[in-house]
Amino acid sequence: GEPGTRVVTHSGKEPAMCDCIFCKIANHEIPSTVVYEDDRVIAFDDLNPQAPVHTLVIPKKHYADITDGVPAETLGAMAHAIDEVARVKGLDKGFRVISNKGEAAGQTVMHFHMHVLGGKDLGEGLI
Ligand code: AMP
Ligand code: ZN
How far away, in angstroms, is 103 Cα from ligand 2 center? Predict the structure, then answer.
């Protein structure tokens, strides 16, 4: 590139250089309603809820989607976060977890996330 510019890898560790909205949420650069947080992951309520409970669980580090080389420890931390979300939100009767990958699935934010949906009888539409 131009002299004086530098290539920036898309990691959550460079908050000022990262245009990803979920990296900014992970870095607390933009506000969200945090439900659970630890070293690896953060869970926050979806801005446009599709169910009475609709919380997103994301890794703090940037991965594009579920197939983007996400380490096993991170996936385990996300499973733990889902359990914490269910406990905090009182989803004792059950809930649904969805992760969209790519345009056919309607993925709009290209930072891996799992939707946790519940708080009502979800029925059998779309799984
Ligand atoms: P997907 O279609 O699977 O990529 O889902 C992206 C989700 O992110 C949608 O349900 C949006 O409502 C949600 N979303 C986008 N921006 C924000 C934000 N700033 N805070 C919370 N949720 C968001
Ligand atoms: Zn990101």
Answer: 17
Q: Which residues of 50-60 are buried (b: 16+ CB within 10 A; e: fewer)?
A: ebebbbbbbbb
Indicate which atom in ligand 1 lies nearest the CA of residue 21: 19
Residue of 29, 34, 48 with the most ligand 1 atoms within 8 Å of its CB, for mutation: 48
The finding on whether 126 has its CB within 6 A of some atom of ligand 1 is no
79-121 tens-digit pLDDT: 999 999 999 999 999 999 999 999 999 999 999 999 999 999 9
d(CA 69, CA 100): 16
Q: pTM score, two decimals?
A: 0.89
